Amino acid sequence: MRVIIVGAGLSGLMAAQSLTNDRHDVTVFDKGRGVGGRLATRRIGDATLDHGAQFFTVRSEEFASHVNKWLEASVVHEWCRGFDSEDGHPRYAGSKGMSGITKHLAQGLDVRTNALVFSLERTANGYNVITDDGVAHACDKVLLTAPIPQSFSLMFGGAVEMPDEMRTIDYDRTLGLLAVLDSDTHNVRSPGGMQNPDEVFSFIGDNSAKGISATHALTFHANPEWSRAHFDLELDEIHSLLLTAARPWLGKAQILESQPKKWRFATPRTTWPEPFWIDASGTLALAGDAFAGPKMEGAALSGLAAARALTN
Ligand SMILES: Cc1cc2nc3c(=O)[nH]c(=O)nc-3n(C[C@H](O)[C@H](O)[C@H](O)COP(=O)(O)OP(=O)(O)OC[C@H]3O[C@@H](n4cnc5c(N)ncnc54)[C@H](O)[C@@H]3O)c2cc1C
C-alpha cells in the first residue's frame, strides 16, 4: 500500500514509522525547512533554544514504550520532576533539543522537506497529492497531520467531506522570545523552568539548565490571552514588548541577541473526541494533537492510532 503523509511533526513521523515497519510504502511531505513542526529548536551562535514545545510528560503505556527507546538511544533525557515543586512525574526533554526527537524518528524514512502540499484530488484508484512544484504524487491512502484549519484548506476542492463540527476546533496562539544571555545571573530558578510566573508569560525555560545549550539562553512564551491580544502587531513592536516583559527575569544578565517568534497554531483549545478521524472509505485520515490530546503525547498517540486505522 502506498501512503502519503502530510506533515513531518511528531504525529506524522510516528505514523510513518509504524506504517514503514508494517512494510508499507510511505512518503512524508513537509513545507518546513526541516522536520519537527512544533518540536522546533533554533541555533543562535553557540546557543541552542527550543522555541516550540519545552518538555513532555508520559501518561500511557503505549507512549512510554516509545519514550523508553528514546531514553536508551539518548534522544531524550529526564529534565526534572516538577518546576515549582517536585511531584514525582518526570518531565522529559530532547537531549539535542526537541527537534532531535523528530530527526531521530525521520531516520530511514522517505521524508521530503521544503515540500508544501497545496491540494488533494481523488482519483479512480486513490489520491493525487499535489505539491507546490506542480507534481501530482499518486497514492492509495493519505494521512493529514497539519493543524486542522490547514488540513481543511487542502480539502477545499471538495476531495473529501469532513465533519462540520471539526471546523469549530480553534488553536491558541503563542508569542515567544528567544534570548541569548552573557551570564547565568538571571532570575529563572532551578531546575530552569517556570510555569505561569507572571501575567505575561506561561513558561520561561532555561535551555542551559535543561541541558541543550552550550551558552546561557532563555525561551519566553507569552500566555494565550497576551498572545491573542498582541498577535497582529508589527513584529518589531511584539519584540519590543516581549523584551520589556522579560526584563524582570533577566536579573543582572545582559541580552546578547534576541528573536521574537509567532505560533499561529500553538495548542488546540478543544479536541476531537476520537484519537483520529477517517473517512467512510477508510482511505483518508486526519491525526495530530487536536485528536488524542493537546500535547506531544496526544500527537504521538494520534499518529499511531491513525496508522493502524489506515491499515485495516
Ligand atoms: C509554543 C508551543 C509550546 C508548546 N509546549 C508544549 C509542551 O511544553 N509540552 C507538550 O507536550 N506540548 C507542547 N506544545 C504542543 C506540541 O508541540 C504539539 O502538541 C505537537 O508538537 C504537535 O505535533 P503534530 O505532529 O500534531 O503537529 P505539528 O508539529 O504542527 O506538525 C504538522 C506539520 O505539518 C506541516 N504542514 C502543515 N501544512 C502543510 C502543507 N500544506 N504541506 C506540507 N506540510 C504541511 C507543518 O510544517 C508541520 O511540520 C507546544 C506547542 C507550541 C507551539
Give the structure's gist in a few sentences.
The protein is an alpha+beta fold and 312 residues long. The chain has helices at 10-21, 61-72, 99-106, 148-154, 224-230, 235-250, 289-292, 296-311; strands spanning 2-6, 25-29, 41-44, 47-50, 76-80, 91-94, 110-112, 117-122, 127-131, 136-139, 141-144, 171-181, 193-195, 201-206, 217-222, 255-268, 277-278, 284-286. 26% of the residues lie in helices and 30% in strands.
3D structure, described in words:
The protein has 312 residues and is of the alpha+beta class. The protein folds into 2 domains: 2-39 and 60-169 and 271-311, FAD/NAD(P)-binding domain (3-Layer(bba) Sandwich), CATH 3.50.50; 171-268, Polyamine Oxidase, Chain A, domain 2 (Alpha-Beta Complex), CATH 3.90.660. It has helices at residues 10-21, 61-72, 99-106, 148-154, 224-230, 235-250, 289-292, 296-311, and strands at 2-6, 25-29, 41-44, 47-50, 76-80, 91-94, 110-112, 117-122, 127-131, 136-139, 141-144, 171-181, 193-195, 201-206, 217-222, 255-268, 277-278, 284-286. The strands form 5 sheets. The protein has a 6-stranded mixed β-sheet, with helices on one face. Strand 1, helix 1 and strand 2 (25-29) form a beta-alpha-beta unit. The longest helix is centred in the C-terminal third of the chain and has 16 residues, at 235-250. The radius of gyration is 20 Å and the shape is globular. The mean pLDDT is 96. It binds flavin-adenine dinucleotide (FAD). Flavin-adenine dinucleotide (FAD) is lined by residues 6-12, 29-32, 37-39, 52-56, 116-117, 145-147, 150, 174, 176, 221, 263, 266-267, 288-289, 295-296, 299.
